[in-house]
Amino acid sequence: MAIRGVVNGVDFSAVLEPDGRRGHWLRIDSSWGINPDEDAQEDVDISFEVSPEWPEPDVPPDLARALLDAPDDVRETWADITPMARWEWVRWVNATANVTTRERRIVVSLSKMADGKRRPCCFDLSACTDVTVSSSGKLRQPD
Which of 37, 50, 119, 141 has the fewest other C-beta atoms within 10 Å? Predict the structure, then answer.
């Protein structure tokens, strides 16, 4: 879900990520002036609403390089799909810590786009795909 809002007086847009438990979570961006480690006891003033427009995803360098080197039809498909669809491809590639699996997912992504596919298939969109905070597709709970 794409959102836009204000946190401590700073405008932001972000995507709420699935937590794998039928909810969502929001990664705090350092540009918002919040340091979760230092400000854990401080109040944060935040308001947000669903955004009708999705922000562009941060495309990881390995996928970005592959897209730059891809045939014209793949680059055209990437440019033509919605930002939400681009988020899905990025999430699918990022959903593994295994280097070999990640490389294979990039190759498969380009192949699927070459075949006209606009989104990854057979991908659990409700899973937490950030391997730095998830385990088995579920957001790890605080200790």
Answer: 37
What gap in Å lies between CA 80 and CA 24, rounded to an integer? Answer: 27
SS3 of 18, please? strand
Structural domain boundaries in the chain: 2-50
Which pairs from 129-134 meet CB under 8 Å and 24+ separation? 129/17, 129/18, 129/91, 129/92, 129/94, 129/95, 130/17, 130/27, 130/94, 131/94, 131/95, 131/96, 131/97, 133/25, 134/20
> Cα 8 from chain centroid?
24
Q: What is the pTM of this model?
A: 0.84
pLDDT tens sequence across 56-106: 999 999 999 999 999 999 999 999 999 999 999 999 999 998 999 999 999
- Six-digit token pair at 88? 């899905």
Q: How far is CA 87 from CA 47, 67, 84, 121, 142, in A?
A: 23, 14, 5, 13, 26
The separation between the first and the last C-alpha atoms of the chain, rounded to the nearest angstrom, is: 27
Q: Quick one: tokens of 103? A: 């490389």
